Amino acid sequence: MKGIYGLLVALALGVAGMLVNWFYLDQRARHADTVHYVGVKTGVVVNQGDLFRESDLEKILVPKSHEGSLRDFAVLWDNLPTVFAVPATRRFRGPELVLQSDLVSPPEKGRELDIDERLMPVPVDSRTFVAGLYKSRDLVYFMVPRSGLAAEPGAAPEAQTESIGPFEIWSVGDRMASVSVARSANQPISQQNVLQIVVKVDDKGNYEPKAQKLANLLVGVGVRNMIVIRAPTEKPKTNP
Fold it and tell me: How far is CA 239 from CA 35, 48, 189, 232, 236, in A?
C-alpha cells in the first residue's frame, strides 16, 4: 500500500509541477504577445498646460491580437520621452491613453516687435483666401490691380496687376499657430479674414513705401480685387 501511496503522491506532484510550468509559460507568452502603450494612471488628473510627471503615467498592455491600428494613434511606451517634451494640450483624467495628437507643440506666442515695426491689419477676401494654409511668420505678397485702377479690357495680364511685398504675417485673425496646433490646444479661432502683417516705420513714424502703397490701394481697391500669394519662408543662412 505504501508503494501505491508513494506513486500517487509522485504523480500528483508531477501534475502540479506541469501545471505550474504551463502557467509560467502561458504568462510569458501573454507578455510576449502584448504591446506597451503610455497611459495616465487611474485617478490622476493632468491639466492643460501642465507637464507630465513619470508618476502620472503607466504602461497599458494591449494584446497584439486586439491592437488593430492603435499604434497609428497612441504613444508607444518606447517613445515615453516624447511625452515629457511638451505640456499637456488638453485635460487628462486617468485611466486613459496618451495619443500622438496630444503631443502637438502648444501654440506659439507672437514674437516681440522691434522698435521700428508696427502691425497693420489687412482684410482679405474669404472667397480666395484659405486661412488654414497660413500661420504666423509666413511671408506673403499681395497682388492688386496696377495703380489701383480697374483692369482695361484686352490688356495683357502682366500689365493689369502688380505684387506688393513681401510682408511677414504676425497673426491670422487671433491665431498665430497652425490650425491643427490651435485646435489641439482648444484655442478659439476667429476673424480668419484679417491678416496682421509686420511693417516698418522710420524714426519720424512714416511707414515704409510698400506698406504705404498697400494701404492706399486697400482704400481705393478693396479686398475683392486683391489676391494673397504665399512666398517661400526665408531660411537662416549657414556658413559654408
Answer: 45, 41, 40, 21, 10
- Distance, CA of 203 to CA of 199 (rounded, Å): 13
Q: Which residue has the cell 511625452?
A: 83
Q: Which of 26, 30, 22 is nearest to 66 (CA)?
A: 30
Question: pLDDT digit string (tens) for 120-133?
Answer: 999 998 888 999 89
Average pLDDT taken over every residue of the chain:
78
Average pLDDT of span 109-129: 88
Q: What is the CA radius of gyration of the chain?
A: 31
DSSP 67-101: TTTGGGTBPBGGGHHHHTTS--SS-EESSEEPBGG
Q: Which three cell numbers stand for residue 92?
A: 487628462
